[in-house]
Each structure stands twice: as C-alpha cells, then as structure tokens.
# Entry
Amino acid sequence: MSSLRPPGEDPPVLEEWYRRHLGPGIHDISSSGVHPYTFAEIRTMCRIPAEDLDAVVMDDSVSQGGAGIRQAIADRYAGGDADRVLVTHGSSEAIALTLGTLLRPGDRVVVQQGIYHSLGHYPRAAGCELAELPAAAVRDGEIDQSVLEGLVTAGTAAVVVNFPHNPSGATLSPQGLKALTERTASVGATLVWDAATAEITHRWDVLPDPAATHGDTVSYGTFSKTFGLPGLRVGWAVAPPGLITATFPLRDRTTLFLSPLVELIAERAMRHADVLVRTRAAEARRNLAHLTAWMAEHEDLVRWRPPEGGVCALPVFRELERTSAGPATVERLCLELLSRHHTLLVPGTAFGAPYGARLGFGGPEEHFRAGLAELSEFLRTRGAAR
# Structure
C-alpha cells in the first residue's frame, strides 16, 4: 500500500512531540501559554450565568464569525471595525485561510527564523521564494536596519513575523515596530503579524495591533496563549475586508463557522480580557523572576537571552553548543529528562535551534518550580557523570 502522506509532509516536530510525550503526571515546563482556567472560573470571572448559556440557540453561525464576538475583538484590537475581523478555529485556521488566499507561487516572502510552523508552511506550500530574517538581527527591540533594508526589498510580497517571539521571547519596542511597518509599507509588502502572546510583555508596554491602522497588514490572535483558554479553540485575524471575503470559498468547503455556544463564551472572555490576562500575567512574572535566578545559578550549564515578552524562553545547553552536537542530541537530552524526571521540554529542533529547548514559565507556580528543580537535578547529575 502506498504512503498516504505527501512527500516531504512529515508532521511538525512541535505537534508530534506533544502527541507522543505529553500526558498525566508530567511536569510540563514546555508550554508557550499560561495555564488554563476551568469553565467554572470563566463563568465567574466573565459573568456568564447559566440562563445565558441556556438561551443559546444551537443554530449555524456565519463564515466571518458572529456579530458579538467580532465586535468584541474589533473593540480591543481593530479600532472598533468589525469588518476587519475574521473569527476562526484557533489562530492556526486564521493563518491557513489568509496565507492560503494571499500568497501565490513565486512570491518573495520574508519569514522570521524559528517561527511557528504554520507561518512558514503556507508560504512554502504556495511555492513562494523564502528569505529568512535571522534571530540575531532582532536586538534591543529593533531589527537591524541594514538587515531590514536588505531583506525587505522592492518586489517583496509579504513579511511574516511573530512578536513576542515563540519560543525566544524576543520582541519589538514601539520604535522597532514603527521601523518595520514603515519599511514594509515603503516597498508595498503585506506585513503578517502574529501577536499570539502580545498581551504579556516584560520590557515595553503592550504593542498596538498594527493591523488596526495599517491597511495592508494581517494580524493573528488567539485565546490559547495569554487568555488561558486553549481548549476554547478560538482565534482570529484582523485583515483587510477584501482578504477576509476572499477566504470564504475555502472556509465554506472546510469548517464553515464556529458554534454559537463557543462564540458566546469567547465574546464574554474578550469583554473581560483585562482580568483574565492580568491574573495569569502576574503569575508568569513571578515564575520569570524565579527562572531568572535559576538561570544565574546554572550559568555554567545553560545560557539565555531573557525574554522580553510572552511566557517562554529558549535556553541553550552549553554542552551541546560546545560539542556542536547534531539535532538528534537535544531530542535525546529531552527524552532522557522526561524518562528520568517526568519533566517535559520541547527540543529546539522544533524551531531550528539544535542546541536549546523551549522552556515555558506560564504554568502554576508550584508545578513550575517543581519542574525546574527536576531539570536542575538532571543537568547537575548528567554533568557530573561526564
């Protein structure tokens, strides 16, 4: 029997890793999101009485998203313009619909290094010519001007970036965002801005969504990362209305629309975003302070660039870097950690970083500290055995 998988279409390392290794009884310090709320917590915090749930008519919604949830998203991220909002099954669907519609074979597309796999997949699948924005070019909130000008040139169709970056936590300052938007506009390129973790920052204020004011910009958001609602599976795109309308033929042949029950919960959550995000952001910042002290205590074994936003970092294992170990080595290290200490990291091979691993600090404080303690014992014991 012939293979059912298209040539070269292996599952993304990130998703396959979780599919195989995430389970009960694990210290998960790998996630790029905050820890999830219970539905009881959401009902209380977002003021959703049982009668409101009971009143939902289980009918179809509409392709662009129901009016209530679109307006709630628009009021927070799109200057109130609901016509610029597309509500989707997670931001992954927003990425698939918009990039699958926007890009054409031969388009020149600049893609940030180590970006979320879907953001790189669709330009490749469309047959675009890809140029990579190196991670090292993003420093102190700005993209190196010479790199920016050398990459974003006349004829560039799109520039695809993610800030705060998952997994490194690097982000842009207001000045850095201004420079990027001005450069993309000057060459007529579409800025594709993944803002999945935009609501939690550690160095600068939360950046405004560039798609709210720049007509050719597409931005993505999700309830999965900073809202604590990954199981809701709701995301969105803020984009030109013409692009949103152009996605309908594809959506009409796939998922059609969301459930009105899910849209009600999402609308209330968006209207109470400040309290949802603030509660989890405070916990993440306490975890980050602990992680910063932990990194200083283990600087002989790991190095990092402290994250400027989001809830994950990309520490590099000095041993692997020193020996120029191959990509499989960091995966073996993570598997050994999981086997011996029931502690989960995501190997850097999921992000093109062969010497490091994604470490998330958005989880419950007690669990996070326990996971770090296990990682510490693993690294010290492993180092002593060599």
Summary: The chain is about 40% helix and 15% strand. The first strand starts at residue 27 and ends at 28.
